[in-house]
Fold each of these.
Amino acid sequence: MPGLELRYVGQDRLPARLSEFDVERYFALTDSDIAAINERFRRDRLAGVAIQLVFLRASGRTLDHVGTLPRQLLRHIGERLGLPTPTIASLRTL
Protein backbone atom coordinates (compact mmCIF):
# COMPACT_ATOMS: atom_id res chain seq x y z
CA MET A 1 0.00 0.00 0.00
CA PRO A 2 2.13 2.89 -1.19
CA GLY A 3 -0.47 5.46 -0.09
CA LEU A 4 -0.26 4.34 3.52
CA GLU A 5 3.53 4.32 3.51
CA LEU A 6 3.64 7.89 2.20
CA ARG A 7 0.91 9.25 4.47
CA TYR A 8 2.92 12.19 5.85
CA VAL A 9 5.49 12.68 3.08
CA GLY A 10 5.49 16.30 1.96
CA GLN A 11 3.28 17.48 4.82
CA ASP A 12 4.29 20.68 6.58
CA ARG A 13 1.69 20.47 9.35
CA LEU A 14 0.50 17.83 11.77
CA PRO A 15 -3.13 16.99 12.43
CA ALA A 16 -4.49 18.03 15.83
CA ARG A 17 -4.72 14.37 16.83
CA LEU A 18 -2.66 11.33 15.87
CA SER A 19 -3.76 7.74 16.35
CA GLU A 20 -1.54 5.35 18.28
CA PHE A 21 -0.99 3.55 14.99
CA ASP A 22 0.28 6.73 13.34
CA VAL A 23 2.55 7.58 16.25
CA GLU A 24 4.09 4.11 16.37
CA ARG A 25 4.29 3.68 12.60
CA TYR A 26 5.42 7.09 11.38
CA PHE A 27 6.92 8.85 14.40
CA ALA A 28 8.85 6.04 16.10
CA LEU A 29 12.24 6.46 17.73
CA THR A 30 14.56 3.46 17.53
CA ASP A 31 16.90 2.51 20.33
CA SER A 32 19.82 3.73 18.21
CA ASP A 33 18.04 7.07 17.64
CA ILE A 34 17.65 7.48 21.39
CA ALA A 35 21.27 6.55 22.07
CA ALA A 36 22.51 9.05 19.46
CA ILE A 37 20.27 11.85 20.77
CA ASN A 38 21.29 11.22 24.38
CA GLU A 39 24.96 11.18 23.42
CA ARG A 40 24.91 14.43 21.46
CA PHE A 41 22.44 16.74 23.20
CA ARG A 42 21.78 18.17 26.65
CA ARG A 43 18.82 16.77 28.54
CA ASP A 44 16.79 19.95 28.11
CA ARG A 45 17.10 19.64 24.32
CA LEU A 46 16.24 15.95 23.92
CA ALA A 47 12.51 16.30 23.28
CA GLY A 48 12.97 19.03 20.67
CA VAL A 49 15.62 17.07 18.81
CA ALA A 50 13.55 13.89 18.89
CA ILE A 51 10.43 15.66 17.61
CA GLN A 52 12.39 17.28 14.79
CA LEU A 53 13.91 13.90 13.87
CA VAL A 54 10.65 11.96 13.73
CA PHE A 55 8.86 14.70 11.78
CA LEU A 56 11.72 14.95 9.29
CA ARG A 57 11.74 11.19 8.86
CA ALA A 58 7.95 10.98 8.41
CA SER A 59 7.48 13.97 6.12
CA GLY A 60 10.84 14.78 4.58
CA ARG A 61 10.45 18.34 5.91
CA THR A 62 11.48 20.33 8.93
CA LEU A 63 9.01 21.65 11.49
CA ASP A 64 9.17 25.24 10.22
CA HIS A 65 5.42 25.62 9.72
CA VAL A 66 4.14 23.43 12.54
CA GLY A 67 2.46 25.53 15.20
CA THR A 68 1.28 22.90 17.66
CA LEU A 69 2.11 19.30 18.42
CA PRO A 70 -0.39 16.53 19.12
CA ARG A 71 -0.41 15.32 22.73
CA GLN A 72 -0.07 11.74 21.54
CA LEU A 73 3.25 12.57 19.90
CA LEU A 74 4.53 14.44 22.95
CA ARG A 75 3.59 11.54 25.22
CA HIS A 76 5.32 9.04 22.93
CA ILE A 77 8.51 11.12 22.77
CA GLY A 78 8.57 11.54 26.56
CA GLU A 79 8.08 7.82 27.14
CA ARG A 80 10.76 6.79 24.66
CA LEU A 81 13.29 9.26 26.07
CA GLY A 82 12.48 8.45 29.69
CA LEU A 83 11.39 12.03 30.31
CA PRO A 84 8.20 13.44 31.75
CA THR A 85 5.74 14.05 28.94
CA PRO A 86 6.63 17.41 27.43
CA THR A 87 3.82 19.84 28.20
CA ILE A 88 4.63 22.32 25.49
CA ALA A 89 2.00 23.12 22.94
CA SER A 90 4.20 25.17 20.64
CA LEU A 91 7.60 24.58 19.10
CA ARG A 92 8.61 28.08 20.10
CA THR A 93 9.04 26.81 23.65
CA LEU A 94 11.55 24.22 22.49
Amino acid sequence: MSTKQDVLRLLYSTVDKPLSGQDIAEQLNLSRTAVWKAIQQLKKDGYEITSSTKVGYQLSRQTDLLTLEGIRSHLGEALQDWDIQVFETTTSTNDLAKTYGASGSRVPTFFIAEEQTAGRGRLGRTFLSPPKSGLYMSICIFPEGDLDSISLITCATAVAATRAVESFIHEKIGIKWVNDLYYHDKKIAGILTEAVTNIEAQKVDALIVGMGINLHIDDAIIPEDLKPIIGSLFSPQEIPDGFSRNEFVARFLKEWNHCYEDINAGKRDFMEEYKDHSIIVGKKVNVISGMKTYPATAKSVDNNGHLIVQTDDGAIHSLSYGEVSIRPEN
Protein backbone atom coordinates (compact mmCIF):
# COMPACT_ATOMS: atom_id res chain seq x y z
CA MET A 1 0.00 0.00 0.00
CA SER A 2 1.36 3.44 -0.94
CA THR A 3 1.94 6.32 1.47
CA LYS A 4 -1.05 8.11 -0.06
CA GLN A 5 -3.29 5.08 0.54
CA ASP A 6 -2.03 4.72 4.11
CA VAL A 7 -2.83 8.35 4.87
CA LEU A 8 -6.26 8.07 3.23
CA ARG A 9 -7.10 4.94 5.22
CA LEU A 10 -6.20 6.75 8.44
CA LEU A 11 -8.30 9.80 7.51
CA TYR A 12 -11.28 7.55 6.76
CA SER A 13 -10.92 5.85 10.14
CA THR A 14 -11.09 9.21 11.97
CA VAL A 15 -13.53 11.07 9.72
CA ASP A 16 -15.36 12.60 12.71
CA LYS A 17 -12.31 14.39 14.07
CA PRO A 18 -9.18 16.03 12.66
CA LEU A 19 -5.75 14.45 12.88
CA SER A 20 -2.59 16.50 13.21
CA GLY A 21 0.22 15.96 10.77
CA GLN A 22 2.35 14.81 13.69
CA ASP A 23 -0.23 12.17 14.71
CA ILE A 24 -0.39 10.84 11.16
CA ALA A 25 3.39 10.80 10.88
CA GLU A 26 3.80 8.90 14.14
CA GLN A 27 1.07 6.35 13.42
CA LEU A 28 2.42 5.60 9.95
CA ASN A 29 6.10 6.05 10.74
CA LEU A 30 6.44 8.83 8.18
CA SER A 31 8.03 12.25 8.06
CA ARG A 32 5.82 15.34 8.31
CA THR A 33 6.92 16.24 4.79
CA ALA A 34 5.75 12.85 3.46
CA VAL A 35 2.37 13.36 5.14
CA TRP A 36 2.00 16.84 3.62
CA LYS A 37 2.85 15.52 0.13
CA ALA A 38 0.32 12.69 0.50
CA ILE A 39 -2.39 15.16 1.55
CA GLN A 40 -1.67 17.35 -1.50
CA GLN A 41 -1.89 14.31 -3.79
CA LEU A 42 -5.22 13.31 -2.26
CA LYS A 43 -6.61 16.81 -2.74
CA LYS A 44 -5.48 16.70 -6.37
CA ASP A 45 -7.32 13.38 -6.74
CA GLY A 46 -10.54 15.07 -5.66
CA TYR A 47 -10.73 14.39 -1.93
CA GLU A 48 -12.09 17.24 0.17
CA ILE A 49 -9.65 17.57 3.06
CA THR A 50 -9.71 20.54 5.39
CA SER A 51 -6.35 21.69 6.71
CA SER A 52 -5.62 23.79 9.78
CA THR A 53 -2.30 24.52 11.41
CA LYS A 54 -3.98 24.29 14.82
CA VAL A 55 -6.08 21.12 14.49
CA GLY A 56 -4.69 19.20 11.51
CA TYR A 57 -6.37 17.38 8.64
CA GLN A 58 -9.93 16.11 8.30
CA LEU A 59 -11.62 14.26 5.45
CA SER A 60 -14.98 15.78 4.51
CA ARG A 61 -18.01 13.50 4.71
CA GLN A 62 -19.09 15.01 1.38
CA THR A 63 -16.21 13.24 -0.34
CA ASP A 64 -17.84 10.40 -2.27
CA LEU A 65 -15.06 8.98 -4.37
CA LEU A 66 -15.37 5.21 -4.67
CA THR A 67 -12.23 3.75 -3.13
CA LEU A 68 -10.89 0.60 -1.54
CA GLU A 69 -10.00 2.56 1.58
CA GLY A 70 -13.49 4.05 1.78
CA ILE A 71 -15.17 0.66 1.47
CA ARG A 72 -12.82 -0.92 4.01
CA SER A 73 -13.41 1.89 6.49
CA HIS A 74 -17.14 1.02 6.55
CA LEU A 75 -16.59 -2.75 6.59
CA GLY A 76 -14.65 -2.59 9.83
CA GLU A 77 -13.47 -6.10 10.69
CA ALA A 78 -15.83 -7.77 8.20
CA LEU A 79 -14.55 -9.61 5.12
CA GLN A 80 -10.90 -9.16 5.97
CA ASP A 81 -10.11 -12.32 4.01
CA TRP A 82 -11.65 -10.90 0.82
CA ASP A 83 -9.81 -9.08 -1.93
CA ILE A 84 -11.54 -5.89 -3.09
CA GLN A 85 -10.69 -4.35 -6.46
CA VAL A 86 -11.99 -0.92 -7.47
CA PHE A 87 -11.97 0.33 -11.07
CA GLU A 88 -12.88 3.65 -12.62
CA THR A 89 -13.97 1.88 -15.80
CA THR A 90 -14.01 -1.66 -17.17
CA THR A 91 -15.81 -3.62 -19.84
CA SER A 92 -17.79 -5.76 -17.41
CA THR A 93 -17.14 -6.64 -13.77
CA ASN A 94 -18.61 -10.10 -14.42
CA ASP A 95 -15.99 -10.64 -17.13
CA LEU A 96 -13.26 -9.64 -14.68
CA ALA A 97 -14.69 -12.02 -12.09
CA LYS A 98 -15.01 -14.92 -14.55
CA THR A 99 -11.40 -14.51 -15.66
CA TYR A 100 -10.32 -14.47 -12.03
CA GLY A 101 -12.53 -17.47 -11.21
CA ALA A 102 -10.79 -19.53 -13.86
CA SER A 103 -7.29 -18.50 -12.73
CA GLY A 104 -6.93 -21.11 -10.00
CA SER A 105 -6.96 -18.66 -7.10
CA ARG A 106 -9.41 -19.36 -4.26
CA VAL A 107 -9.61 -15.98 -2.53
CA PRO A 108 -13.15 -14.50 -2.45
CA THR A 109 -12.92 -11.32 -4.51
CA PHE A 110 -15.18 -8.32 -5.06
CA PHE A 111 -14.90 -6.23 -8.21
CA ILE A 112 -16.58 -2.83 -8.51
CA ALA A 113 -16.46 -0.13 -11.17
CA GLU A 114 -17.79 3.38 -11.72
CA GLU A 115 -18.52 2.57 -15.37
CA GLN A 116 -18.94 -0.45 -17.62
CA THR A 117 -18.41 -0.13 -21.36
CA ALA A 118 -19.94 -3.55 -22.10
CA GLY A 119 -22.26 -4.17 -19.17
CA ARG A 120 -24.74 -6.98 -19.70
CA GLY A 121 -27.75 -8.50 -18.05
CA ARG A 122 -29.56 -11.79 -18.42
CA LEU A 123 -29.94 -13.36 -21.87
CA GLY A 124 -27.09 -11.21 -23.19
CA ARG A 125 -29.01 -7.96 -22.93
CA THR A 126 -27.07 -4.70 -22.65
CA PHE A 127 -27.03 -3.18 -19.15
CA LEU A 128 -26.72 0.62 -19.29
CA SER A 129 -23.71 1.49 -17.10
CA PRO A 130 -22.81 5.18 -17.50
CA PRO A 131 -20.01 6.73 -15.40
CA LYS A 132 -20.71 8.30 -12.01
CA SER A 133 -24.37 7.23 -12.16
CA GLY A 134 -24.46 3.82 -10.54
CA LEU A 135 -22.47 1.00 -9.03
CA TYR A 136 -21.48 -2.02 -11.09
CA MET A 137 -20.12 -4.90 -9.08
CA SER A 138 -19.39 -8.62 -9.07
CA ILE A 139 -18.55 -11.15 -6.39
CA CYS A 140 -16.42 -14.20 -7.17
CA ILE A 141 -16.70 -17.03 -4.64
CA PHE A 142 -15.79 -20.69 -4.57
CA PRO A 143 -18.81 -22.63 -3.27
CA GLU A 144 -18.63 -25.98 -1.59
CA GLY A 145 -22.38 -26.61 -1.60
CA ASP A 146 -24.54 -28.39 -4.15
CA LEU A 147 -26.28 -26.75 -7.08
CA ASP A 148 -29.54 -26.48 -5.16
CA SER A 149 -27.83 -24.16 -2.69
CA ILE A 150 -26.15 -22.24 -5.49
CA SER A 151 -29.53 -21.50 -7.08
CA LEU A 152 -30.44 -19.46 -3.99
CA ILE A 153 -27.56 -17.03 -4.49
CA THR A 154 -29.52 -14.73 -6.79
CA CYS A 155 -32.36 -14.50 -4.25
CA ALA A 156 -29.88 -13.83 -1.45
CA THR A 157 -28.26 -11.06 -3.49
CA ALA A 158 -31.64 -9.42 -4.09
CA VAL A 159 -32.40 -9.51 -0.36
CA ALA A 160 -28.98 -8.10 0.56
CA ALA A 161 -29.47 -5.27 -1.94
CA THR A 162 -32.94 -4.40 -0.63
CA ARG A 163 -31.60 -4.30 2.93
CA ALA A 164 -28.79 -1.96 1.91
CA VAL A 165 -31.06 0.32 -0.13
CA GLU A 166 -33.80 0.47 2.49
CA SER A 167 -31.29 1.39 5.19
CA PHE A 168 -30.78 4.68 3.31
CA ILE A 169 -34.20 5.54 1.88
CA HIS A 170 -36.55 3.92 4.44
CA GLU A 171 -38.96 2.92 1.69
CA LYS A 172 -39.80 -0.55 0.47
CA ILE A 173 -38.03 -1.93 -2.58
CA GLY A 174 -39.78 -4.46 -4.82
CA ILE A 175 -38.23 -7.67 -6.17
CA LYS A 176 -39.34 -9.05 -9.53
CA TRP A 177 -38.47 -12.74 -9.80
CA VAL A 178 -35.81 -13.61 -10.03
CA ASN A 179 -33.25 -10.89 -10.40
CA ASP A 180 -34.61 -7.34 -10.68
CA LEU A 181 -35.15 -4.62 -8.06
CA TYR A 182 -37.90 -2.05 -8.51
CA TYR A 183 -38.51 1.35 -6.94
CA HIS A 184 -41.53 3.50 -7.77
CA ASP A 185 -42.52 0.96 -10.45
CA LYS A 186 -39.23 1.23 -12.32
CA LYS A 187 -36.24 -1.10 -12.48
CA ILE A 188 -33.27 0.22 -10.53
CA ALA A 189 -31.07 -2.88 -10.34
CA GLY A 190 -30.41 -6.19 -12.05
CA ILE A 191 -28.55 -9.28 -10.93
CA LEU A 192 -26.65 -11.71 -13.16
CA THR A 193 -25.39 -14.99 -11.70
CA GLU A 194 -22.90 -17.03 -13.74
CA ALA A 195 -20.56 -19.93 -13.11
CA VAL A 196 -17.10 -21.12 -14.06
CA THR A 197 -17.61 -24.85 -14.52
CA ASN A 198 -15.30 -27.85 -14.67
CA ILE A 199 -16.98 -30.17 -17.15
CA GLU A 200 -14.69 -33.14 -16.49
CA ALA A 201 -15.21 -32.97 -12.74
CA GLN A 202 -18.87 -31.98 -13.21
CA LYS A 203 -18.67 -29.23 -10.64
CA VAL A 204 -18.75 -25.47 -10.30
CA ASP A 205 -15.26 -24.08 -9.77
CA ALA A 206 -16.37 -20.50 -9.16
CA LEU A 207 -19.64 -18.64 -8.85
CA ILE A 208 -19.97 -15.10 -10.17
CA VAL A 209 -22.70 -12.82 -8.84
CA GLY A 210 -22.97 -9.51 -10.65
CA MET A 211 -25.21 -6.57 -9.82
CA GLY A 212 -25.70 -3.15 -11.35
CA ILE A 213 -27.70 -0.52 -9.49
CA ASN A 214 -28.75 2.89 -10.78
CA LEU A 215 -28.09 5.40 -8.02
CA HIS A 216 -28.75 8.69 -9.80
CA ILE A 217 -28.85 8.16 -13.53
CA ASP A 218 -29.64 11.20 -15.69
CA ASP A 219 -32.95 10.68 -17.48
CA ALA A 220 -31.49 12.36 -20.57
CA ILE A 221 -29.14 9.45 -21.27
CA ILE A 222 -31.80 6.74 -21.00
CA PRO A 223 -33.02 5.61 -24.45
CA GLU A 224 -36.59 6.73 -25.13
CA ASP A 225 -37.94 3.18 -25.35
CA LEU A 226 -36.52 2.38 -21.91
CA LYS A 227 -37.65 5.51 -20.05
CA PRO A 228 -40.94 3.92 -18.89
CA ILE A 229 -38.95 1.00 -17.48
CA ILE A 230 -35.59 2.25 -16.16
CA GLY A 231 -35.37 4.31 -12.98
CA SER A 232 -32.85 5.17 -10.30
CA LEU A 233 -32.71 5.44 -6.55
CA PHE A 234 -32.26 9.21 -6.55
CA SER A 235 -32.43 11.96 -9.12
CA PRO A 236 -29.05 13.65 -9.81
CA GLN A 237 -30.39 16.79 -8.09
CA GLU A 238 -31.73 15.02 -4.98
CA ILE A 239 -28.88 12.91 -3.63
CA PRO A 240 -29.28 12.96 0.18
CA ASP A 241 -26.67 14.78 2.25
CA GLY A 242 -24.25 12.32 3.72
CA PHE A 243 -25.05 9.50 1.29
CA SER A 244 -21.85 7.55 0.76
CA ARG A 245 -21.35 5.06 -2.03
CA ASN A 246 -18.55 3.45 -0.06
CA GLU A 247 -20.89 2.98 2.90
CA PHE A 248 -23.63 1.61 0.65
CA VAL A 249 -21.25 -0.94 -0.85
CA ALA A 250 -20.03 -1.99 2.59
CA ARG A 251 -23.59 -2.46 3.86
CA PHE A 252 -24.48 -4.52 0.81
CA LEU A 253 -21.40 -6.73 1.18
CA LYS A 254 -22.04 -7.38 4.86
CA GLU A 255 -25.69 -8.24 4.22
CA TRP A 256 -24.72 -10.45 1.29
CA ASN A 257 -22.20 -12.32 3.41
CA HIS A 258 -24.81 -12.87 6.14
CA CYS A 259 -27.20 -14.39 3.58
CA TYR A 260 -24.43 -16.54 2.08
CA GLU A 261 -23.51 -17.86 5.51
CA ASP A 262 -27.18 -18.73 6.04
CA ILE A 263 -27.22 -20.69 2.79
CA ASN A 264 -24.13 -22.64 3.81
CA ALA A 265 -25.72 -23.36 7.20
CA GLY A 266 -28.88 -24.67 5.55
CA LYS A 267 -30.96 -21.69 6.67
CA ARG A 268 -33.55 -20.03 4.46
CA ASP A 269 -34.76 -17.19 6.70
CA PHE A 270 -33.90 -14.55 4.10
CA MET A 271 -36.40 -16.13 1.71
CA GLU A 272 -39.24 -14.74 3.84
CA GLU A 273 -37.91 -11.25 3.08
CA TYR A 274 -37.65 -12.14 -0.59
CA LYS A 275 -41.30 -13.24 -0.64
CA ASP A 276 -42.40 -10.16 1.31
CA HIS A 277 -40.75 -7.89 -1.28
CA SER A 278 -42.13 -9.75 -4.29
CA ILE A 279 -44.05 -7.59 -6.75
CA ILE A 280 -45.09 -10.55 -8.89
CA VAL A 281 -46.91 -12.95 -6.57
CA GLY A 282 -50.63 -12.84 -7.27
CA LYS A 283 -50.12 -11.23 -10.69
CA LYS A 284 -51.05 -12.57 -14.10
CA VAL A 285 -47.82 -13.11 -16.01
CA ASN A 286 -46.37 -14.33 -19.25
CA VAL A 287 -43.77 -17.03 -18.70
CA ILE A 288 -40.88 -17.18 -21.17
CA SER A 289 -39.10 -20.53 -20.98
CA GLY A 290 -36.73 -21.34 -23.82
CA MET A 291 -38.62 -20.86 -27.08
CA LYS A 292 -41.99 -21.13 -25.36
CA THR A 293 -44.18 -18.35 -23.92
CA TYR A 294 -47.40 -19.04 -22.04
CA PRO A 295 -49.80 -17.18 -19.70
CA ALA A 296 -50.03 -18.06 -16.02
CA THR A 297 -50.66 -16.66 -12.56
CA ALA A 298 -47.73 -16.28 -10.15
CA LYS A 299 -48.82 -18.06 -6.97
CA SER A 300 -45.76 -17.98 -4.70
CA VAL A 301 -41.99 -18.28 -4.39
CA ASP A 302 -40.77 -21.38 -2.53
CA ASN A 303 -37.79 -21.65 -0.20
CA ASN A 304 -35.56 -22.82 -3.04
CA GLY A 305 -36.20 -19.61 -4.94
CA HIS A 306 -38.47 -21.28 -7.49
CA LEU A 307 -41.48 -19.39 -8.80
CA ILE A 308 -44.71 -21.36 -8.50
CA VAL A 309 -47.16 -20.57 -11.28
CA GLN A 310 -50.57 -21.86 -12.26
CA THR A 311 -51.54 -22.05 -15.91
CA ASP A 312 -55.04 -21.43 -17.20
CA ASP A 313 -55.80 -25.17 -17.21
CA GLY A 314 -55.13 -25.33 -13.47
CA ALA A 315 -51.74 -27.05 -13.71
CA ILE A 316 -49.06 -26.00 -11.20
CA HIS A 317 -45.49 -25.50 -12.38
CA SER A 318 -42.28 -24.82 -10.42
CA LEU A 319 -39.86 -22.58 -12.32
CA SER A 320 -36.18 -22.68 -11.40
CA TYR A 321 -35.19 -20.54 -14.38
CA GLY A 322 -36.79 -18.54 -17.14
CA GLU A 323 -38.29 -15.10 -17.33
CA VAL A 324 -41.67 -13.63 -16.53
CA SER A 325 -43.35 -10.38 -17.43
CA ILE A 326 -46.38 -8.96 -15.67
CA ARG A 327 -49.43 -8.79 -17.91
CA PRO A 328 -51.25 -5.44 -18.02
CA GLU A 329 -54.48 -5.43 -16.02
CA ASN A 330 -57.64 -5.04 -18.08
Amino acid sequence: MQFNIWYCFRCSGSNCCAQFHISCGIFAGYNYQIQQKRKHIALMYCNNHSYIPDQNKIVHINQKVWARHLQHKRISECRIIKIDKTPLGIVKFSDNTISDSITLNEIKNYADNFPPIDKMIHLKSGDKGLFLALNYKHIYTVEYKDGTSGCLFPDDICSLDEQFNSSLQRHAK
Protein backbone atom coordinates (compact mmCIF):
# COMPACT_ATOMS: atom_id res chain seq x y z
CA MET A 1 0.00 0.00 0.00
CA GLN A 2 1.42 3.35 -0.95
CA PHE A 3 0.31 6.49 0.88
CA ASN A 4 0.53 9.96 -0.56
CA ILE A 5 1.46 12.45 2.16
CA TRP A 6 -1.31 14.81 1.04
CA TYR A 7 -4.14 12.27 1.43
CA CYS A 8 -6.63 13.14 4.12
CA PHE A 9 -7.48 10.17 6.34
CA ARG A 10 -10.43 9.59 8.64
CA CYS A 11 -9.96 7.94 12.03
CA SER A 12 -11.04 4.27 12.07
CA GLY A 13 -12.42 4.65 15.60
CA SER A 14 -16.16 4.04 15.76
CA ASN A 15 -18.16 7.27 15.36
CA CYS A 16 -14.99 9.40 15.16
CA CYS A 17 -15.06 12.11 12.51
CA ALA A 18 -11.45 13.26 12.93
CA GLN A 19 -9.71 13.77 9.60
CA PHE A 20 -6.02 14.42 9.20
CA HIS A 21 -3.01 14.47 6.92
CA ILE A 22 -0.44 12.03 8.30
CA SER A 23 2.49 14.40 7.75
CA CYS A 24 0.74 17.41 9.34
CA GLY A 25 -0.14 15.38 12.41
CA ILE A 26 3.35 13.97 12.82
CA PHE A 27 4.92 17.42 12.66
CA ALA A 28 2.34 18.65 15.20
CA GLY A 29 3.41 15.86 17.58
CA TYR A 30 0.35 13.61 17.27
CA ASN A 31 0.63 9.87 17.78
CA TYR A 32 -0.94 7.53 15.23
CA GLN A 33 -1.49 3.84 15.24
CA ILE A 34 -1.62 2.21 11.82
CA GLN A 35 -2.70 -1.42 11.58
CA GLN A 36 -2.19 -3.31 8.32
CA LYS A 37 -5.05 -5.82 8.35
CA ARG A 38 -4.78 -7.16 4.81
CA LYS A 39 -2.63 -6.34 1.82
CA HIS A 40 -4.52 -3.15 0.89
CA ILE A 41 -6.48 -2.23 4.03
CA ALA A 42 -4.96 -0.08 6.73
CA LEU A 43 -6.77 1.11 9.83
CA MET A 44 -5.62 4.48 11.13
CA TYR A 45 -6.51 5.94 14.48
CA CYS A 46 -6.28 9.52 15.70
CA ASN A 47 -4.67 10.63 18.98
CA ASN A 48 -7.85 9.95 20.96
CA HIS A 49 -8.35 6.41 19.69
CA SER A 50 -4.86 4.99 19.30
CA TYR A 51 -3.33 2.73 21.90
CA ILE A 52 0.15 4.09 22.55
CA PRO A 53 1.87 2.07 25.32
CA ASP A 54 4.07 5.03 26.29
CA GLN A 55 1.01 6.95 27.45
CA ASN A 56 0.19 4.21 29.96
CA LYS A 57 3.52 4.44 31.77
CA ILE A 58 3.92 7.41 34.05
CA VAL A 59 7.64 8.01 34.25
CA HIS A 60 9.30 11.02 35.82
CA ILE A 61 12.81 12.30 36.53
CA ASN A 62 14.52 10.64 39.53
CA GLN A 63 12.13 7.70 39.36
CA LYS A 64 13.67 4.26 39.89
CA VAL A 65 12.89 1.73 37.15
CA TRP A 66 14.20 -1.66 36.09
CA ALA A 67 15.72 -2.10 32.64
CA ARG A 68 18.20 -4.29 30.82
CA HIS A 69 21.71 -2.90 31.41
CA LEU A 70 23.21 -1.81 28.10
CA GLN A 71 26.63 -3.33 28.87
CA HIS A 72 26.10 -6.60 30.75
CA LYS A 73 22.54 -7.24 29.44
CA ARG A 74 21.11 -8.16 32.85
CA ILE A 75 18.06 -6.43 34.31
CA SER A 76 19.27 -3.73 36.67
CA GLU A 77 17.80 -0.97 38.77
CA CYS A 78 18.36 2.50 37.33
CA ARG A 79 17.16 6.06 37.81
CA ILE A 80 15.61 8.32 35.16
CA ILE A 81 17.81 11.42 34.90
CA LYS A 82 16.41 12.99 31.70
CA ILE A 83 13.27 12.65 29.58
CA ASP A 84 13.31 13.81 25.98
CA LYS A 85 11.71 13.17 22.60
CA THR A 86 13.84 12.08 19.68
CA PRO A 87 12.95 12.00 15.98
CA LEU A 88 13.05 8.60 14.31
CA GLY A 89 12.49 7.88 10.64
CA ILE A 90 9.62 5.81 9.30
CA VAL A 91 10.95 3.80 6.35
CA LYS A 92 9.26 1.39 3.94
CA PHE A 93 11.47 -1.37 2.53
CA SER A 94 11.20 -3.25 -0.78
CA ASP A 95 9.59 -6.27 0.94
CA ASN A 96 6.75 -3.94 2.09
CA THR A 97 7.85 -3.99 5.73
CA ILE A 98 8.00 -0.72 7.65
CA SER A 99 10.31 0.38 10.44
CA ASP A 100 9.39 3.31 12.68
CA SER A 101 12.68 3.50 14.57
CA ILE A 102 15.44 4.48 12.11
CA THR A 103 17.89 6.92 13.69
CA LEU A 104 19.67 9.63 11.73
CA ASN A 105 23.08 8.00 12.27
CA GLU A 106 21.84 4.81 10.55
CA ILE A 107 21.24 6.68 7.27
CA LYS A 108 24.32 6.82 5.02
CA ASN A 109 23.20 9.22 2.31
CA TYR A 110 21.73 11.87 4.65
CA ALA A 111 24.27 12.41 7.41
CA ASP A 112 23.26 15.85 8.73
CA ASN A 113 19.47 15.85 8.58
CA PHE A 114 16.58 13.54 7.83
CA PRO A 115 15.77 13.25 4.11
CA PRO A 116 12.71 14.75 2.44
CA ILE A 117 9.59 12.58 2.39
CA ASP A 118 9.45 9.99 -0.42
CA LYS A 119 13.24 9.94 -0.93
CA MET A 120 15.20 6.69 -1.23
CA ILE A 121 17.65 6.19 1.63
CA HIS A 122 20.63 3.88 2.10
CA LEU A 123 21.22 2.47 5.57
CA LYS A 124 24.60 1.52 7.02
CA SER A 125 23.28 -2.04 7.29
CA GLY A 126 23.14 -2.17 3.48
CA ASP A 127 19.35 -1.95 3.29
CA LYS A 128 17.56 0.60 1.13
CA GLY A 129 14.13 2.05 1.75
CA LEU A 130 11.68 4.85 1.08
CA PHE A 131 11.61 7.55 3.75
CA LEU A 132 7.94 8.13 4.70
CA ALA A 133 7.92 10.43 7.72
CA LEU A 134 9.31 11.29 11.15
CA ASN A 135 8.09 9.68 14.34
CA TYR A 136 8.91 11.36 17.66
CA LYS A 137 9.42 8.89 20.51
CA HIS A 138 10.22 9.42 24.15
CA ILE A 139 13.77 8.59 25.12
CA TYR A 140 14.95 8.26 28.72
CA THR A 141 18.48 8.87 29.90
CA VAL A 142 19.10 6.60 32.88
CA GLU A 143 21.85 6.11 35.41
CA TYR A 144 22.49 2.56 36.61
CA LYS A 145 23.56 1.62 40.15
CA ASP A 146 27.15 1.07 38.92
CA GLY A 147 27.37 4.71 37.77
CA THR A 148 27.12 4.05 34.03
CA SER A 149 24.40 5.72 32.00
CA GLY A 150 22.55 5.10 28.78
CA CYS A 151 19.48 5.96 26.73
CA LEU A 152 16.34 3.81 26.68
CA PHE A 153 13.05 3.84 24.81
CA PRO A 154 9.80 3.21 26.76
CA ASP A 155 9.67 -0.43 25.62
CA ASP A 156 13.15 -0.99 27.11
CA ILE A 157 11.85 -0.40 30.63
CA CYS A 158 10.96 -3.76 32.13
CA SER A 159 9.09 -2.45 35.12
CA LEU A 160 8.47 0.52 37.30
CA ASP A 161 10.22 0.19 40.65
CA GLU A 162 7.14 -0.38 42.82
CA GLN A 163 5.78 -3.16 40.60
CA PHE A 164 9.09 -4.98 40.33
CA ASN A 165 9.84 -4.84 44.07
CA SER A 166 6.38 -6.23 44.89
CA SER A 167 6.89 -9.06 42.42
CA LEU A 168 10.33 -9.90 43.85
CA GLN A 169 8.94 -9.99 47.39
CA ARG A 170 6.10 -12.33 46.37
CA HIS A 171 8.52 -14.73 44.63
CA ALA A 172 10.97 -14.67 47.56
CA LYS A 173 8.34 -15.97 50.01
